[in-house]
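Ticket opened by: R.M.
Priority: normal
Category: complex prediction / small molecule

The reporter submitted a protein together with flavin-adenine dinucleotide and asked that the result be attached to this ticket for the collaborator who will pick it up next week. Submitted input follows.
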Amino acid sequence: MGSFDTIVIGAGMSGVTAARMLADAGHRVVVLEGRDRIGGRMHTDREAGFPVDRGASWIHGVDGSPLWDLVQALRIPTIEYTVGSFQVGGRPIENFDGDGKPLDADATGRWIADVDTVDRLLVEEIASSSPGDTYLDVTERALDRSGLTPERIDDIREFFRHRVEEQCGAWIGDLDAHGLDEDAIDGDEVIFPHGYDELPGRISAGLDIRLETTVTKVVRSKDGIVVHAGDATFTADQCVVTVPLGVLKAGTIAFEPPLPDPVAGPLSRLGMGVFNKIFLQFDERFWNEDSYVLRALGEAGEHWHSWYDVSAVSGLPTLLTFAAGPFGRRMQDLPDEEVVADVVRSLRALYGAAVGEPRAHWITHWGDDEFSNGSYSHLALGSTHHDHDDLAGPVDGVLHFAGEATWGDEPATVGAAYYSARRAAERILGRAVDLDDFAARIIEREQTEAR
Ligand SMILES: Cc1cc2nc3c(=O)[nH]c(=O)nc-3n(C[C@H](O)[C@H](O)[C@H](O)COP(=O)(O)OP(=O)(O)OC[C@H]3O[C@@H](n4cnc5c(N)ncnc54)[C@H](O)[C@@H]3O)c2cc1C
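Result attached by the on-call engineer:
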């Protein structure tokens, strides 16, 4: 019935990928995007003359990653940056103890071994956990069994809390015991010195994308789909909804008839976390040239604990730190100057007067962003891994969901957005989509354009 074959809602990684795959197959596709830009949670800010990735930065593990294959096929430059997943070792990390004193090589070795010991016990505790157990419960059991001294246990407890905040944007007591099961990193991690948004940008070239078109209602019937965006209506045979879980949970898009339980259930059970970034740029480097991360353990790092050296991107001394979970939400209500002063205070507790005043800063507020309403999804207590994939639908054969929250294998990532988009496109086309062909056609189109 529709004037389009498919309407895609959202022009983030999943939206532009699904739309591109369908358009490549000859479908008439329109993409409706609420923001005045594409990319969604891949957002490179270039106002300062160099790229600052306010959303995603990393590919977390390049081995066996089809996302990495795509990045390589498109010859997008990357920099190796392993330890982007809250590891304790693997690359040089400057650790400080609870009093803000640097750990020497022996103490660092012991710290890495301590975390490793408890992590191994944690795997066992997770395997034998019961429904209703939180990640905090299994962590405490593993710590109890560790035989470590109370002080060392305190540092690890703090570290695990921060790891959950960073990976899930959630409080450790709100995460299901299985909430980090999919957190395996295979191979190096990389970041994007020219900005991660090059990827959705190049995928989206040539698509019919309507920016500043905020969808308010999706009506489905056996004849197809009607999508309302304020006064405008769009009709199609099929629809792929890729708006973030936070937007779906907020209920700002009305679904008529209401979503059935197999989709509405996961939607209510899964959690949407908050993870914000704070970049501080300095005139002078006060940390070692080859350090990847500066990390304060125990009390010294209660709030601000990990700083990632991302100077390679701008060529200027730049640290990236995070505020996630409940702290990330609280931070959003503070004036930027206060946040910057607080981070600088924490750094001075470690490096003293060597820490100058930052020359520039960037602070994100993903939890307040009406088009994402949080940073990424996680397994809130009461949800299961199946909930992610069940969220994809389809509903009545016409309504599909894609996006990071709909991919159980590695939710909360760019890869999840990419793979879930392919699944939606394949379901609509009724056949497989080859990812090498997908990449080759992007390049072919660029070459034709350039001629
Ligand atoms: C701070 C931060 C850091 C991250 N770091 C990493 C990382 O290092 N590595 C990694 O792999 N992942 C990371 N992620 C996660 C990654 O960014 C996301 O998983 C991925 O980009 C999600 O893509 P998506 O297409 O599912 O959703 P999105 O990119 O959010 O796309 C959805 C689109 O829908 C639009 N939309 C919303 N509501 C409406 C509406 N009503 N009408 C029309 N359009 C609407 C939005 O504007 C958006 O453009 C990070 C995320 C954040 C926030």
